Amino acid sequence: MKLFEVVKASINTREAAQVYGIDVNHHGMALCPFHNDRHPSLYVLDDHYHCFACGEHGDVIDLTAKLFDLRLYDAARKLASDFHLAPDKPLPEAIRRKMQHKTKAQQLRENERLCFSVLNEYRRLLLDWEKRYAPQAPEDVPDKRFVEACHRLPWAEYQLDILLQGDSYERGETVSELTTDGYIRKLQARLRKERYHEQPCLD
Ligand SMILES: [Zn+2]
Hints:
- The chain is mainly alpha-helical.
- It has 2 domains: 3-100, Zinc finger, CHC2-typedomain (DNA Primase, Chain A, Alpha-Beta Complex), CATH 3.90.580.10; 102-197.
- Helix content is 61%, strand content 5%.
- The chain contains 9 helices and 4 strands; from the N terminus they run H-H-E-E-E-E-H-H-H-H-H-H-H.
- Helix 2 runs parallel beside helix 3.
- Bound molecules: zinc ion.
- Residues 32, 34-35, 37, 41-42, 51, 53-54, 56 line the site of zinc ion.
- Residues 29-80 form the Zinc finger CHC2-type domain.
- InterPro entries: DNA_primase_Znf_CHC2, DnaG_primase, Znf_CHC2.
- GO terms for molecular function: DNA binding; DNA-directed RNA polymerase activity; zinc ion binding.
């Protein structure tokens, strides 16, 4: 067994963050130690972390390396020692099973990230449309982009909220809905086209 694999499979990122002094709230959010954070921007999950403000992200070993300014190998050794792991001994059955499931978990995580970034971009576009195409006079026929913004903004914000703050079950449900029939990929393709045609609103 390799040290990195054992450490990643055995040590929960959120738990390690807390042991190392990061105060993670019950939404999984914390003040980011990697930039001057005033409102919690660091999202800490069981197997990785991500800062929505400065973009820092990684797994439990990256986190430890970054926090203590260590090379990855030394960070992994520190974790193994702080959490009393013995990488040379055979892994407990539960952890071995967890490692086999990892690819599925990774897939889910990738889908989650994709959904989040596409929805976030969609939200930005709708906010822009809501302003830019708002009717100028009450008798104007509303532009279809304005109508879409009115209908879809609350929806997009709701989905983002779940992805950001929901528990793993809620996030999983949302991701599976959004990926059904390739919805999120189609939205991504559409956003690319819109970006090509539009200039961002400057006011
Ligand atoms: Zn940050």
